[in-house]
Amino acid sequence: MSRVVVKVGSSSLTTTGGHLDPERVDAVVDAVAAAAARGDEVVLVSSGAIAAGLGPLGLPARPRDLPTQQAAASVGQGALVARYSARFAEHGLTVGQVLLTVDDVTRRGHYRNAYQTFAKLHELGVVPIVNENDTVATSEIRFGDNDRLAALVAHLVHADLLVLLSDVDALYTGHPSLPDSRRIETVGGPEDLVGVDVARVGSAVGTGGMVTKIEAARIATAAGIPVVLTAAPHASAALSGDDVGTRFLPTGRRRPTRLLWLAHASETKGVLTIDDGAVRALTARNASLLAAGIDDVAGDFAAGDPVDVADRSGRVLARGLVNYDSAELPALLGRSTRELGEELGADYEREVVHRDDLVLL
Ligand SMILES: Nc1ncnc2c1ncn2[C@@H]1O[C@H](COP(=O)(O)OP(=O)(O)O)[C@@H](O)[C@H]1O
Ligand SMILES: N[C@@H](CCC(=O)OP(=O)(O)O)C(=O)O
Question: pTM (2 decimals)?
Answer without folding.
Answer: 0.81
